[in-house]
Amino acid sequence: MDLTWSEADLAFREEVRAFLDAKLTPELRQAGRLMTSVYADHEASMEWQRILHERGWAAPAWPVKYGGCDWSLTQHYIFSRESQLAGAPSLSPMGIRMVAHALVKFGTDEQKDFFLPRILTGEVFFCQGYSEPEAGSDLAALSMAAVADGDDLVCTGSKIWTTHAREANWMFALVRTSRTQKKQQGITFVLVDMASPGIEIRPLVMTSGEEVQNQVFFDDVRVPKSNVLGEIDDGWTVAKYLLEFERGGGASSPALQVMADEIATVAADQPAPSGGRLIDDAAFSRRLADARIRTEVLEILEYRVLATVAEGKNPGTGASMLKVLATELSQTLTELAMEAAGPRGRVYQPHATFPGGPVAEFAPPPDGYVSGEPWQAVAPLRYFNDRAGSIYAGSNEIQRNILAKAALGL
Question: Could you tell me which residue ranges the Acyl-CoA dehydrogenase/oxidase C-terminal domain spans (predicted)?
Answer without folding.
Answer: 233-407
